[in-house]
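Wed. Picked up where I left off yesterday with M23 family peptidase. The coffee machine is broken again, so keeping this brief.
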Amino acid sequence: MQPRKKRILADLLAHLPSARRAGTLAALSGISFFGVVAAMATAPDAPPPFVPQTIVERLTVAATTPEASDDLPFVHDERVQSGDTIESIFRRLNVRDTEALSFLLHDAEGRTALRQLRSGRSLTALVHGDGRLQALSLPVSRAGGRFSIERTADGFQVRSDEAQALSTVVEMRSGTIQHSLFGATDAVGLPDPVATKLAEIFGTEINFHSDLRRGDSFSVIYETLYDQGAPVRSGKILAAEFVNQGRRHTVVLFRGGDGREQYYTADGRSLRQAFLRSPLEFSRITSGFGRRLHPIHRNWRTHAGVDFAAPIGTPIKATSDGTVSFVGVQNGYGNIVIVLHRDRYATAYAHLNGFMRGLRKGQRVNQGDVIGYVGKTGWATGPHLHYEIRVNNVAHDPLRIALPAAQPLSRQELAQFREQTAPLVERIALLNRTTVAALR
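Structure written out below (C-alpha cells, as returned):
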C-alpha cells in the first residue's frame, strides 16, 4: 500500500499551482516531523525506561553433613505371599536382624502368629538402613487381627493391636466365552474363586460339561475384601447373569428374614434346594447312563450312573441339601457316600479316594459342601467319580432327569425380595447395557 500512497500524492502535487505546491510540501513536512516527535515523547513524571542488565554473583553454599543420630527407619508395606516364612519375608525386606528373628521363633505368641500368616494380607515393617528391625506388624487372622512387635530399650516387646476390619469393595466384570469358562474369566480379570462359584451357582440351570457354547456371555457383581488398601480375597457373589445358547439366566443373592442368604432367580425362584447337575467343578464324562460293556468284567451291564473323569483328590460336592445315609465301602462301588434329599431323592458318590474329615451317617450337608475326593477304589480302571441320582431307590440318568424345584417365596417374602434385589438387577442391566424390565 505504501507505493500506491506515494503515487497518489505525487499525482496530486502535479496538478496544483506552483505556489500552492510549495505550501503543501511544507505542511506535509511539518506533519511528518511532529509525528516523529510525538512518538518519541514520554509522559511527565514517568520513570525512566527500563534497560535490562545481566548481573552475575557467586554465592557460597554452607556444607551440611547428616548428624550421626539421624537413623530414621524405612517403612515397608508388603503383602504376604503364598508359602511365605518369616525368613523369606526378612530377605525380601532386607532385614538382617538375628535378634528379631530369634525373638519371633522363640516367643510363644510369635510362633503362633507365624503359623497363622495369611497370604494376600498386608504386612508393615520399619527397617533401619543397616538392616535392623524397628517394628513389624503381621496379619494373623481372617477377621483382621494382627501381631506386632517393636524394638525398645529393653529388647523386643509384643504390642497388642486391635483387629482391623477389612473393607469391602463391590466389583463388576463381564466376558464372552471363546474356548472355556476359565479362559474367559481370566481374560477379564475375574478371580478363580469367583469363577468357580459362578459355575456352581448356575450349575442348577446350565450343564457346563455339555451346554457351554462359544459366544455365551456372563456378567457378575461380587465383593472383594481389602486390607489397608490391598486386595486380600474375593467375597460373595451378589448377582450374576449367564447367557447360554441365547437363553438368559439371572441370579441374585437375597437375605431372608431369618438372616440366611440364598440365591434366587430374578423372579424369586430359589436355587438353594435345586440339584447341581455335576458334583465336580470341571471334568469330562467318560461313561454315560445305560447299557455298556463293563471295563473289568467284559460283559454287558447296566451302568446306573454317570462317570466323571478327574484327577485323584479332586473335591466332590453334595449336589443338594440332605442327610448322609451311608459312608463307607460297598462292593464294586469302593468308598461311597449316599445322601438322602427331600421328595424321596437320593444321590450316590462312588470310587472315592477318601471322605471329608468328620463326615458321618446322619450328618446334615448343604449344597456345595465337600463330602469326599475323587479316587479309583472298587471296580475302577482309573480315577473318576461314579455319580447316581435315585428316586425311590431307582437310579435315573443324572443328565436327563427333571430335577425338583425349590419351594417358592411367600407373598410377603416376595415383596421384600423385589425391594432388596432391585438395585442388583439394575446393576446387571447397566453392566450389560440392557433395559431393566419391572418385575411383576
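Quick read: Residues 1-10, 24-42, 434-440 have pLDDT under 50 and may be disordered.
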